């Protein structure tokens, strides 16, 4: 009977203590087995009471063990793997953001400050959005400028060669005024080297409104490079794209301070970061926008190249090899 009282009082918060309590009463060599063994020596007239008492002790001890155990299990579930919250924590290994993502987020941030939203589209595109709507009809020689990976021919489905395809989708689904940038991965069938890869990343910008001029384009690009690189000088070189007229190539002056600068800019200090121009009225028409009322500009910049300059990366392949020794260097750059 004293044992029953003791069992009823018993409490603990440690799993080990519950276990030794269980062994003490219910284990093979525990008290209860001793009592049961003792039973045959008890005089007949006391057998009934003795039997009832040890049965009650057994039941009480079993219930105690069960309630203590499940209470402990619940606290463990609530507090995570460690029941004891005073234990020192274990450091979690935090990853690093990829340099492409870091630069992409910076660019999105810069353009969002002047009213551009972000739009995205599929990497697997049809012919219309990647080429035809952009003033590149079938058999147009300019299609050769973009070494395309085809997923299927006739009808043609391909890996987009530029994010201009997203601008077509955006114009088809939205009315001017339009201010949007479209970041994403693009694919071209080019030989892989330290300077070029068969996939890379672009951000294209599109601005459509009444009376948009080339001066607006130039100022927007200048604002962008100044925000991203600090005080910066840009150069627009006349060029040709089927979807813009006039068109230009955008170079930024970076300088030649390091060995990496020398290699990335081919010893000139200038780096071509993208293309731009005034959206061809034909493209506006293809996308359902009145070209009499509206005009606009578009530009596209390469994120990989900009990341290479900013982080002094001399081989573009490092950006897609997933070598943790490379990636871990961006831990503090979140
Ligand atoms: N889409 C072009 C390319 O990938 C870049 C560009 C975008 C040029 C917008 C002009 C206007 O080469």
UniProtKB/TrEMBL annotation:
The keyword S-adenosyl-L-methionine does not apply. Binds 2 magnesium ions per tetramer. Gene3D superfamilies: Bira Bifunctional Protein, Domain 2. Mg(2+) binds at residue 245. Its cofactor is Mg(2+). SUPFAM superfamilies: Class II aaRS and biotin synthetases, tRNA-binding arm. Its EC number is 6.1.1.20. Transmembrane segments: none annotated. One of its GO terms (cellular component) is cytoplasm. GO terms for molecular function: ATP binding; magnesium ion binding; phenylalanine-tRNA ligase activity; tRNA binding. It catalyses: tRNA(Phe) + L-phenylalanine + ATP = L-phenylalanyl-tRNA(Phe) + AMP + diphosphate + H(+). InterPro entries: aa-tRNA-synth_II, aa-tRNA-synth_II/BPL/LPL, Phe-tRNA-synth_IIc_asu, Phe-tRNA_ligase_II_N, Phe_tRNA_ligase_alpha1_bac, Phenylalanyl-tRNA_Synthase, tRNA-bd_arm. Signal peptide: none annotated. GO terms for biological process: phenylalanyl-tRNA aminoacylation. PANTHER family: PHENYLALANINE--TRNA LIGASE, MITOCHONDRIAL, PHENYLALANYL-TRNA SYNTHETASE. Tetramer of two alpha and two beta subunits. NCBIfam families: pheS. This is Phenylalanine--tRNA ligase alpha subunit. The lineage of its organism: Bacteria, Pseudomonadati, Bacteroidota, Flavobacteriia, Flavobacteriales.
